[in-house]
Every structure is written in structure tokens, then in C-alpha cells.
Write a structure and sequence with these properties.
alpha+beta; 3 helices; 59% helix; globular
């Protein structure tokens, strides 16, 4: 991962496919694989936001895997 730019509320990074797969797997486990007591307190977001992020990461991986024209 390469940090491009940071600010108080946002960061711009370049992340490789292998790193993105780790993020995807971790989010999948948190959202679907294990029961997390006090989910929002421990994760820092509610389950709906974490699931939405999982879908966004999955869509990004799908886009990376699709043939480019």
C-alpha cells in the first residue's frame, strides 16, 4: 500500500490486488463468518456500513479481474 495523500477525514492510497483481497476476506469474516459481540463498538461501524463496504470492495475486485478493452 502506498499513501498518496492524507487529510483529517480522508486518505488517498494505492493498494495492490493482494492487499485488497486481505481487506475483502477480513470484512467477509467480520460481516458473515463470526458473531461479533457489540459489533459497532468493536468494529467502529454498524454492520450495515461494514456490509456495504464489503460489497464495494468486492465490486472493485470484480472490476480489476474483468478484461480491459
Amino acid at each position: 500500500m502506498e499513501i498518496i495523500n492524507t487529510a483529517a477525514e480522508r486518505a488517498q492510497v494505492e493498494i495492490g490486488r493482494d492487499e485488497l483481497l486481505i481487506v475483502n476476506a477480513a470484512l467477509n469474516e467480520v460481516c458473515n463468518g463470526i458473531a461479533v459481540f457489540e459489533f459497532e463498538t468493536r468494529i467502529g461501524a454498524n454492520r450495515e456500513r461494514a456490509t456495504a463496504l464489503l460489497k464495494e470492495v468486492g465490486a472493485l475486485l470484480d472490476k480489476m479481474d474483468s478484461p480491459r478493452e
